[in-house]
Amino acid sequence: MAQSNIEWTELTWNPVTGCSKISPGCKFCYAESMTRRLTAMGVEKYKDGFKVRTHPDTLNIPYGWKKSKVVFVNSMSDLFHPEVPIEFIKAVFAVMNNTPQHIYQVLTKRSERLVEFADQLSWTPNIWMGVSIENEEYAYRIDNLSLTPAKIKFLSIEPLIGPVRTLNLDSIDWVIVGGESGHKARPLEKEWIDFVKLRCEQSNVAFFFKQWGKPKFNANPHDPTIDAKHPKHAKGGCELDGQIFRELPVVAA
């Protein structure tokens, strides 16, 4: 468990580590870069580098949290990676089922495997299920997500590296959009963001704009959130037409 600086969560919990690249959004994977640093530091959990590994010893961690938390599950991996056994996925879900005081945010690019196993899992309301989409080619992941029984379904359109025009939000509760950061970050166009935002407004879906990624991508070079000292600072800034959009999904009582 670790405190997170990801704007849409509070903590990260990694019962699985390691992954492999399957689509263009993976090209500059932050988890892979971070793993290299942790391996070099001699952190035991990352002794095998970015190879997929399950960590049964971490399954008890959420039971020790005294206050309700919002938790990003497997920020350093993908729970539905083909090398993660279904038995372990079920074990992770059991922990989430047994700790309803916490909200768990699960994000995958392996939407086909998600659909394959969805009926074998218990979808308590505290499990938010999301898929990552980076451009139009991978919009089919939305359709796969829609087939699951998850009570809250969300999209992480990050890094947004091309337009996404096929955006069926009929079963979606929340959309996160963000640009790529880092030395070799690929450009982000404002019109791509505007299209997603408009579709969210039309479908009454919560819209969360995380970041432009790099200042040079920002449509407004005077965006005050570019400044690292700004309380709402994000990489490259996070204003869109002079506003900050950090909406969250509406959860039924």
Topology:
Layout: E1 2-3, E2 11-13, E3 16-17, H1 30-40, E4 53-54, E5 70-73, H2 86-98, E6 103-108, H3 111-117, E7 127-132, H4 140-146, E8 152-157, E9 174-178, H5 190-203, E10 206-211, E11 239-240, E12 243-244
Helix pairs in contact: 3-4
Cα shape: globular
Distance between the termini: 27 Å
Sheet with most strands: 8 strands, mixed
Radius of gyration computed on alpha carbons:
18 Å
Instruction: Classify the helix fraction into a percent range.
Output: 10-25%
- The count of DSSP E runs of length 2 or more, i.e. the number of strands, is 12
Outline the low-pLDDT stretches. Answer: none
Q: How much is the average pLDDT?
A: 96
**Continuous helix count:** 5
The side-by-side strand order for the widest beta sheet comes to: 1-2-5-6-7-8-9-10
Which series of helices and strands comes N to C?
A: EEEHEEHEHEHEEHEEE
Q: Beta-strand level of the residues, as a percent range?
A: 15-25%
What structural category arises from helix and sheet content? Answer: alpha/beta
Describe this structure in words.
This protein is an alpha/beta fold and 253 residues long. 21% of the residues lie in helices and 18% in strands. The protein is built from 5 helices and 12 strands. An 8-stranded mixed sheet has the order 1-2-5-6-7-8-9-10. Strand 5, helix 2 (86-98) and strand 6 (103-108) form a beta-alpha-beta unit. The longest helix has 14 residues, at 190-203. It starts with a strand and ends in a 9-residue tail after the last strand. The mean pLDDT is 96.
